[in-house]
Amino acid sequence: MLKSISGKQPLGVQIVGRVLMVAGCSVFAKIILLLLLPEQQLFNFLKQQPLNTYEPLFGLGMISLGKNLLLLKEWARRVTIWLLWASLVFQVGLALLYSSYAFPAVVLITAFLIVLNYLSTSTIKERFKAPELHKGGNLKPTS
């Protein structure tokens, strides 16, 4: 599970970090589409969602969180876990309120629990706390 592409981050951390960065960039793609395209050319789902004033901050936050996960910052791991728990509670609430949303909520809840479990394992915690990773040093233990 700790096999990584670049040799520094575990593969799971790379996936979660990059998914967060892509999600943050998609927020900016939506904003650009809403601002540049005439209304008749917008997709139906974009017409139904007005531009929120906090969306740029949300997008920047996701990009920053993903980047710092890739840099193995402990605070980014903790914030990601906290946000996953908050999203988990939100998804359970939606599933209880809207029965038609039950199946998509179960899929999201399962994915959130898998990522929460992964980021909470002791081997991943150790990788985030290892100081030699942040200094660009050797990953092998020194004696």
Description:
It is built from 7 helices and no strands. Helix 3 packs across helix 4 (74-97) and helix 4 packs antiparallel against helix 5. The radius of gyration is 18 Å and the shape is flat. It has one domain (11-134). Helices cover 71% and strands 0% of the residues. The protein has 143 residues and is mostly helical. The chain has helices at 11-36, 44-48, 55-70, 74-97, 102-119, 122-129, 131-134.
The percentage helix is over 70%
Shape: flat
How many domains? The number is 1
Radius of gyration: 18 Å
Q: Into which percentage range does the β-strand content fall?
A: under 5%
Average pLDDT value?
79
Order of helices and strands: HHHHHHH
How many helical stretches?
7
N-to-C span: 25 Å
Helix-strand makeup class: mainly alpha
User: What's the total count of β strands?
Assistant: 0
Unreliable residue runs: 1-5, 137-143
How would you characterize the largest beta sheet?
A: none
